[in-house]
Amino acid sequence: MKKTIKFAIFAALLAMTGSLSAQTMINGGFKITVLQTDNQDAKAYGGFYAGATQNVVLSRHVGVAPGIYFSRFTGDNESTTAGITTHNKMTESEIAVPVPINVMMHITDVSMFYIYAGPEFNIGLSSKAEGWLGDSENHLTIDLYEEGVPGELGRYNISWIGGIGAKFDFLNVNLGVSGNFFNRLYDSDINQKAINILLGIGLAF
Description:
Elements: H1 2-19, E1 21-37, E2 43-57, E3 62-64, E4 67-81, E5 84-98, E6 101-106, E7 111-133, E8 140-143, E9 156-168, E10 171-180, E11 192-204
Antiparallel strand pairs: 1-2, 1-11, 2-3, 2-4, 3-6, 4-5, 5-7, 6-7, 7-8, 7-9, 9-10, 10-11
């Protein structure tokens, strides 16, 4: 009986989803990631993101837009002491699954402005920290997702995401911001936050 009920619910959800209007958007663009660890100086990194969103229209002015995106940032933070330059390079990749609600203001049947906000689920793929002195070829590289390393990161997190955008026929542009709810550092009293600024362009089908 329970299996029958579950199957009926699943079938109903599929039928409802199939009856809703949906539009696929392929998006990509630039992002700036700012890492802030407690009272330390913030560090900024440049990067990119790319992926797809399925905008499911619930009514003329409201929709939900789940998506899946690959993103990466990288950068070398240099510091010089007594004439010796220390390099601290960071390269991080992740999969992000945003599920925002969007509110749309239609200009025509195929063009609109919109705002969006909601949760985003994050899965870390790799996070490499590389350090070296001056022009030395001896680089120390560690994976910050590896268990027990200094500065170990949690691989999973939940973020908030929000922004504004515009769709003109098949062209989509957007500007967004996201930030993690939970400490990026794994099992630590020190808190690290990441704020991402996203600027993208894409195609709507």
